[in-house]
């Protein structure tokens, strides 16, 4: 057993010294905290020297271990006396005197044994003194617990349980030694680890007792996992004992049955550890019996906020809200209803629940009650005491849901935006004021997230409609120009209907208008440009623009000063359309005997420069500066005011620019800069993009 003793006392030494360091860092100067630190630190030194004694590494370790054992017992006495002192009256100091007498008796017993004068005594003095030490320790613990007011016992219960267990172990060890006149080696070897196992209970008591002035905290997660680990260890010990019994009495089948039992035990243990219901029961048990409040609000709020702010890829925001709320009350899942723009709450998301296709109006009794009161409806309580809910009548679909448990409203500061129905919990779960307050606060935050989500969806939908309406406006503007071409053709048909050349030109114009209108309709339906960007021969495009305006007055003069081919990267139809807009505006602003010039020249930085000049009515500088590029601003009685807006927007999209120079009564000069494509060695390079 020496090897066992070395490990037992060694582990105890490490545990006590780490705990002593933690107490020292958490100590705020109060006397009880200092006494606890001294007792724990001395216990660590005692365990360390006992491990050295078991190993035989130091000749004086045995004597020092006994001395520190005595000092350790005295330190724990001092700690109990310090805690009990406020409870004693003026004439009730006898527990301290008794403890002092026991310590003196232990010292005398050690002195007698070291002097070798114990032969005439009926019992060994040291064993008797240590036995009395355990009895008095139990007495001090009992006095502390009974003297504490009933409302305050909860805080000291773990400490009293730990110290009482330690003294009972000592009582058994030395009573057995007194009975058989020897120390049981097995029990002595386990003494170190037995006392180390009491540290968690002492730590829990420290967190519950602010009067010790120790800023100690024990994480619920650590307690949960420690309890689960201890339970798993106890379970495996029971399984191992049962397997050993089967092997011992099982004859030839013993070993096979032992392996089968151990394997089955491990499988069952794994199933229990990964069972949500078992983990929920353990979590509820720990929160109920080991902590003053059901929740660690800091960790719960951080976890809840994290669940809402970083949505799991496999869950949408609605499912994340359901999961976050259900985790607070150990529910496996639920369903979420959200209000729409028509005053109806419709199913939006579900988590671990079958689909429910039920619509609840915002003015229904259920939604009205949730909006007025903001209460969380406990359906189990409602079925037993419906009168507590102010005459609320539940809808039939909710009454028929067997697994429904809680109805949680989702309210912002202004309105009810929906509600969540949670399923029955994995383990019995009491709904008290603490749970209700937490759920009400959590639903407010969840409602804020969901309200912003609904607002973002509405904004996105509005932007889609705005984009569609803008495109529709551009299409209508183009249709207006096409209708103008048809009107001009019909006007001239009265005079030239017998002219074969006019008839052919009319057919070509109608075919072109039909193709353009079909393309515009396709663009409007698909909500995109119908032609992709590509290299466009700019002189050919300008000639096509002039050809499309051939029947109008004044005639357009085309001037191409650029040497060689000029190509730009653009959408052919859109570019032709916006240049046609600018040319049409020049024609509309110019008298029939006026002048409109469309010219192409090389601009700066490898750009192509298209210029449209007229000597028409012109525009004021204020109109050009403040109104010209804004949508729905025009000086024409029949204009829509979006041609210039579309032109500028498209040119900026492809890297171009638009410049106006105009004066009232003298005409207008419009310069369109376009990024030019330079072809070198068979390759094309877009300049200025």
UniProtKB/TrEMBL annotation:
Keyword Transferase part of the UniProt annotation: yes
Domain of life where this protein originates: Bacteria
Domain Histidine kinase: 474-678
Keywords: ATP-binding, Kinase, Membrane, Nucleotide-binding, Phosphoprotein, Transferase, Transmembrane, Transmembrane helix
Record's protein name: histidine kinase
Pfam families: GAF, HATPase_c
One term under GO cellular component: plasma membrane
Enzyme Commission code(s) on record: 2.7.13.3
GO terms of molecular function: ATP binding; phosphorelay sensor kinase activity
Residues that span the membrane, as ranges: 6-27, 34-52, 58-82, 94-111, 123-142, 154-175, 187-206, 227-246, 258-278
CDD domains xrefs: HisKA
Classification via InterPro entries: 2C_sensor_his_kinase, GAF, GAF-like_dom_sf, HATPase_C_sf, HATPase_dom, His_kinase_dom, HisK_dim/P_dom, Sig_transdc_His_kin-like_C
SUPFAM superfamilies: ATPase domain of HSP90 chaperone/DNA topoisomerase II/histidine kinase, GAF domain-like
Lineage, uppermost ranks: Bacteria, Pseudomonadati, Pseudomonadota, Betaproteobacteria, Rhodocyclales
Reaction catalysis annotation: ATP + protein L-histidine = ADP + protein N-phospho-L-histidine
């Amino acid at each position: 057993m020496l090897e066992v003793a070395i490990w037992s006392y060694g582990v105890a030494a490490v545990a006590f010294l780490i705990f002593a360091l933690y107490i020292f860092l958490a100590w705020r100067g109060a006397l009880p905290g200092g006494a606890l630190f001294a007792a724990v630190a001395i216990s660590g030194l005692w365990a360390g020297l006992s491990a050295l004694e078991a190993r035989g590494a130091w000749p004086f370790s045995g004597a020092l271990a006994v001395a520190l054992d005595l000092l350790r017992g005295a330190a724990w006495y001092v700690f109990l006396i310090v805690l009990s002192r406020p409870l004693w009256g003026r004439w009730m100091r006898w527990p301290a005197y008794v403890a002092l007498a026991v310590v003196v008796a232990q010292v005398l017993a050690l002195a007698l044994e070291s002097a070798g004068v114990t032969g005439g005594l009926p019992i060994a003095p040291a064993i008797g003194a240590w036995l009395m030490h355990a009895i008095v320790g139990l007495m001090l613990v009992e006095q502390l617990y009974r003297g504490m007011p009933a409302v305050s016992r909860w805080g000291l219960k773990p400490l009293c349980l730990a110290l009482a267990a330690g003294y009972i172990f000592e009582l058994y060890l030395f009573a057995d030694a007194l009975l058989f006149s020897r120390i049981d080696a097995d029990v002595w070897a386990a003494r170190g680890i037995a006392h180390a196992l009491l540290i968690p209970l002492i730590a829990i008591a420290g967190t519950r007792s602010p009067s010790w002035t120790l800023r100690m905290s024990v994480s619920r997660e650590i307690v949960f996992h420690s309890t689960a680990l201890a339970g798993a260890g106890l379970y495996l010990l029971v399984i191992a004992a049962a397997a050993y019994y089967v092997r011992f009495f099982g004859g030839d089948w013993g070993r096979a049955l032992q392996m089968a039992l151990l394997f089955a035990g491990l499988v069952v243990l794994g199933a229990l550890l990964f069972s949500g219901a078992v983990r929920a029961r353990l979590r509820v048990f720990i929160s109920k019996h080991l902590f003053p409040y059901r929740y660690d609000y800091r960790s719960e709020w951080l976890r809840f906020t994290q669940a809402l702010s970083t949505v799991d890829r496999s869950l949408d925001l609605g499912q994340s809200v359901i999961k976050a709320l259900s985790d607070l009350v150990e529910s496996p899942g639920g369903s979420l209803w959200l209000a729409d723009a028509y005053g109806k709450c419709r199913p939006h998301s579900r988590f671990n629940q079958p689909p429910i296709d039920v619509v609840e109006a915002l003015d229904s009794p259920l939604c009205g009650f949730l909006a007025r009161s903001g209460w969380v409806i406990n359906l189990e309580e409602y079925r037993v005491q419906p009168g507590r809910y102010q005459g609320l009548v539940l809808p039939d679909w909710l009454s028929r849901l067997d697994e429904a448990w809680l109805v949680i409203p989702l309210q912002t500061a202004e309105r009810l935006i929906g509600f969540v129905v949670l399923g029955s919990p994995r383990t019995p779960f009491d709904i008290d004021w603490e749970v209700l307050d937490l759920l009400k606060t959590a639903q407010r935050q969840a409602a804020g997230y969901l309200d912003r989500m609904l607002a973002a969806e509405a904004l996105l939908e509005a932007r889609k409609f705005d984009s569609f309406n803008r495109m529709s406006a551009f299409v209508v503007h183009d249709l207006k120009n096409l209708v103008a071409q048809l009107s001009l053709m019909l006007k001239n048909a009265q005079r030239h209907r017998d002219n074969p050349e006019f008839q052919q030109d009319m057919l070509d114009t109608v075919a072109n208008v039909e193709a353009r209108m079909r393309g515009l309709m396709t663009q409007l339906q698909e909500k995109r440009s119908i032609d992709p960007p590509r290299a466009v021969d700019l002189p050919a495009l300008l000639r096509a623009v002039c050809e499309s305006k051939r029947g109008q007055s004044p005639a357009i003069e085309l001037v191409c000063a650029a040497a060689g081919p000029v190509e730009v990267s653009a959408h052919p139809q859109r570019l032709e359309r916006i240049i046609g807009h600018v040319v049409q505006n020049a024609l509309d602003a110019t008298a029939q005997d006026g002048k409109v010039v469309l010219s192409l020249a090389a601009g700066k930085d490898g750009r192509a420069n298209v210029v449209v000049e007229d000597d028409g009515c012109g525009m004021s500088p204020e109109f050009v500066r403040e109104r010209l590029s804004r949508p729905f601003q025009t000086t024409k009685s029949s204009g829509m005011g979006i041609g210039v807006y579309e032109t500028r927007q498209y040119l900026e999209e492809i890297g171009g620019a638009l410049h106006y120079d105009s004066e009232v009564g003298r005409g207008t000069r419009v310069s369109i800069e376009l990024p030019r494509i330079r072809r070198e060695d068979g390759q094309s390079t877009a300049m200025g993009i």
